[in-house]
Amino acid sequence: MFLKTRILMNYGKTRITVCKDVAELGVMAASLVGKKLTELLAKQKTVRAVFAAGESQESFLKALAKGYGIDWQRVECFNIDDFWDTRMTEQFTCGHQTTRQLYRQVKPMSVDLVQFNAPDPQAECDRYEALLRARPIDILCQGIGTSGHLALNEPGETDFHDTRWVRLVNVAEQSKRQLQVDPNFQALGYIPEKGITMTIPAILSATHCCTMVPFALKKPILTRLAAVRQAVKYLPASILLEKEGVLFVDKDSCPEAWTSIGEKAARA
Predict the structure, then answer these.
(1) Mind listing the pLDDT tens digit for each residue in 139-161?
(2) CA-CA-CA-CA torsion for 127, 93, 136, 163, nearest 10 degrees?
(3) What is the C-alpha to C-alpha distance for residues 252 and 8, in angstroms, rounded to an integer?
(4) In angstroms, rounded to a whole number, what is the distance separating the alpha carbons of residues 184 and 106?
């Protein structure tokens, strides 16, 4: 249930909802996504949904795993990205996290993950891209990294008009620093240098988009995003200015600029 104290505003075409904490953010985002999935399933035989991993997604995934009355047997699930490193074991992959926190509980129609240890990463990009392009993506759920990335589309390496839907990329140094304090990856002992990710055009192709960004460590990057008025490649997540969807933040991650706008709107 949405609290009366929530703050609502826009970031370009994206609607912002400010929650009191990460727990409420997870429940509110899961409620919205669950409602949308149910609405889509009432009109379609199947639905294709993309999910992300990381500490910022945990409260959302765990809340969504409660079911929300969704007919998961008609939902095809994909992950937005994963690291690529032949040395890795499965327990440290993004796919393992989403499987443990969501897929294993709801048992969807199908789950397609990036093969993190594929011997030929380009062949894996081709394989995964073909799967994603097969039919439209109905809903996509994601976060924003401290580097400003969406998925693993990093500053300086992102093409808003990329002809590819899946690409092998370098993990930015800022993203590595973020992952070093993420409990999902700390025990690995190192951060992989490469990743396989959906590109920005693939992300934008989704009919519905939901972005979850809690925690104080995300406030600096959201503050930078709040200051730009058009999509810029040095902040890939700024493309959300051009994408209809919902961005959930909590009071710890919310930039002061957005808090001020919301408070003024509440007083009006």
Answers:
(1) 999 999 999 999 999 998 999 99
(2) -60
(3) 16
(4) 21
